[in-house]
Automatic annotation (TrEMBL):
A Pfam family this chain is assigned to: SusD-like_2
Tagged with keyword Signal: yes
Protein name: SusD-like starch-binding protein associating with outer membrane
TM regions (residue ranges): none
Keywords: Signal
Signal found in the keyword field: yes
Lineage start: Bacteria, Pseudomonadati, Bacteroidota, Cytophagia, Cytophagales
Signal peptide positions (record): 1-24
Gene3D superfamilies listed in its UniProt record: 1.25.40.390
Tree of life domain: Bacteria
PROSITE patterns listed in its UniProt record: PROKAR_LIPOPROTEIN
Species this protein is from: Dyadobacter jiangsuensis
SUPFAM superfamilies in UniProt: TPR-like
Length: 570
């Protein structure tokens, strides 16, 4: 998004198609002197609006609460929606994705009218990405008759999830074909915030999305998936190198152009400091000496030390460089950060023989003495974990790790919204090969997936040692575990993989009343009130499960078509 500074401000005040529901008419649009006339809009001006919106929203999911679902992170306060899947209707999310589709639909129409083949390929790729995300999140949704308000289609029917997936596969095929021979002379440099007009990279992106969605439907449409993945592999045109990843940079000039936990727009640092690495991910990385660990996470500020000579069960006060700081149970994160930067070490001692949890109803030990400590999933009170002396909404837990300070930044470096990656494509091909499909060797792709992820995070020089530690032994579980790790900040893909494979094995905690990971988003009351018959028809096709609860079929634990009859994930 560095190129945004070269784009006229008119782009950012597009008042074109931002109606709140997919059924609203497009025929009555007030003229806006600061907006873009849909009848004369230049496709170049429309592209960054679509791309930046999609990139930002996709990151909000993958770095946000979906990371809580797949146990990449946990929050130690205000945790219900993050750790415990206590979700309500998803109206704002629904509006956002259909809003992107409206702007993208205009991009496509204008590209066709003006004969801009490159822009058509881009628009079809983005259409598939957006509709695919909607189907992934909810299940059935308006598709065939969506975006037709100007033609009088006010209450669009919901297409099945199967129809949507088949449709986006066809759109991606068409996009790839267009991009292969597209005329890029119509592209104005600086307006493509992913690839700056590189049509080959766009074709690789489209084909990698085909890999994604072929594998997504592989349990329900195995013949289609097998033939499709083999064809893409044979073509050789897909994301192979981390440098080709579909990413959006952040420029940090405003909250919307900055990383979600940027300190510049979160002065209290609450959004950053309340988000902790989850024990499931962190422990897996510690066990294999994963070099990405130190890039993503910090050591605990105050480490527990087992000390059999201690007369009491546990030190009341912290120790600085081994010296008890009488009267000091804790320091603020800012104080600890300054002291640790200056070279000081902080510990607390405990006697493992006489130690007893102060609150066994919340935490029953043992104390975690590791250098890196993650928060277990679904704790009743995660602020108490590992005998944190400042529970509740007080000073953050000094005995649990935090995210890297990089995630307090606003822009640049590691801070990118990632829509698709070479690592993901490699793991998909590894899974295909593991199934016996003609996509080369599973081990080669598995190793390449690891290599590309390490490249992404700047630790490729440690590949040789790491790949030995996690050497491929021919199991799907290994492939999915490494893909799960590599999906850091893009956790939606890990969620959808878990849903169809039940891998990696993720155990819900005590707090979630469902005792199971959720499977989908909930249709909103707004849609039920305004397009009720069609929404209810879609809900009826969902499969209620033992975990669905009082919402019955319209629950986050009900099964959409994609996993019905598969026995997955439970």
């Amino acid at each position: 998004m560095k190129i945004f500074k070269y784009i006229p401000k008119v782009v950012f005040v597009l008042a074109v198609l931002v109606a709140s529901s997919c059924k609203e008419s497009l025929t009555e649009i007030n003229e806006n002197p600061n907006g873009v006339d849909p009848n004369t809009a230049n496709p170049n001006l429309l592209m960054p609006t679509v791309m930046s919106g999609v990139g930002t929203q996709y990151l909000k999911l993958g770095y946000g609460r979906i990371a809580g679902v797949v146990q990449h992170t946990q929050e130690d306060a205000w945790k219900d929606g993050f750790n415990d899947y206590n979700w309500t209707e998803e109206d704002d999310e629904w509006k956002a994705w259909y809003g992107f589709l409206r702007n993208n639909n205009l991009l496509y129409k204008r590209s066709v009218e003006m004969g801009y083949t490159f822009h058509q390929g881009v628009a079809l790729t983005m259409k598939a990405f957006i509709f695919g995300t909607i189907a992934d999140l909810w299940g059935d949704a308006p598709y065939t008759n969506a975006l037709k308000g100007d033609a009088g289609e006010m209450l669009p029917a919901f297409d099945s999830q199967e129809v949507i997936y088949k449709g986006i596969i066809e759109d991606l095929k068409q996009a790839s074909s267009l991009l292969a021979t597209a005329d890029v002379s119509t592209y104005a440099p600086g307006y493509d915030v992913y690839y700056n007009g590189d049509k080959l990279k766009w074709q690789k992106f489209a084909n990698s999305l085909l890999l994604r969605y072929y594998m997504r439907v592989s349990a329900k449409l195995p013949d289609v998936a097998k033939a499709g993945i083999e064809q893409i592999y044979t073509s050789g045109i897909y994301l192979k190198e981390a440098s080709d990843d579909a990413v959006m940079d952040y420029i940090g000039t405003a909250s919307g152009d900055s990383w979600p936990t940027a300190t510049a727009f979160d002065v209290s640092q609450s959004n950053w400091r309340r988000r902790r690495p989850a024990a499931a991910l962190l422990n897996t990385m510690v066990a294999s000496s994963d070099p990405r660990l130190k890039v993503w996470f910090q050591p605990v500020h105050v480490r527990w030390v087992s000390d059999a000579t201690l007369k009491t069960g546990v030190d009341e006060f912290i120790r600085k460089d081994g010296v008890i700081q009488t009267g000091v149970k804790s320091l603020t994160e800012q104080e600890l950060r300054a002291e640790i930067t200056a070279g000081h070490k902080f510990t607390r001692h405990f006697n493992p023989t006489t130690y007893k949890p102060a609150r066994p109803d919340l935490f029953n030990g043992p104390l975690n003495t590791g250098e890196y400590v993650g928060v277990p999933a679904g704790m009743i009170d995660p602020t108490y974990y590992n005998e944190n002396p400042t529970t509740g909404q007080q000073v953050q837990n000094q005995h649990a790790s935090q995210l890297s300070y990089a995630y307090q930044g606003s822009k640049g470096g590691l801070l990118k919204a990632r829509l698709a990656s070479a690592a993901e494509s490699a793991f998909i091909l590894a899974e295909a090969a593991q199934k016996g499909w003609a996509t080369g060797g599973a081990e080669v792709h598995y190793n390449n997936g690891i290599k590309q992820s390490l490249q992404t995070w700047g630790v490729a020089d440690q590949y040789d040692a790491y790949v030995k530690a996690v050497a491929y032994k021919g199991t799907l579980a290994q492939i999915m575990e490494q893909k799960w790790i590599a999906s850091w900040t893009t956790a939606t893909e890990a969620w959808f993989d878990y849903r169809r494979t039940a891998l990696p094995v993720l155990v819900p905690g005590l707090a979630p009343v469902s005792r199971a990971l959720p499977l989908r988003f909930i249709y909103s009351n707004n849609e039920l009130n305004n397009n009720g018959d069609n929404v209810r028809s879609a809900i009826e096709k969902l499969e209620e499960t033992n975990f669905s609860g009082p919402r019955k079929k319209n629950s986050q634990w009900s099964k959409p078509w994609l996993v019905q009859g598969t026995g997955k994930p439970w």
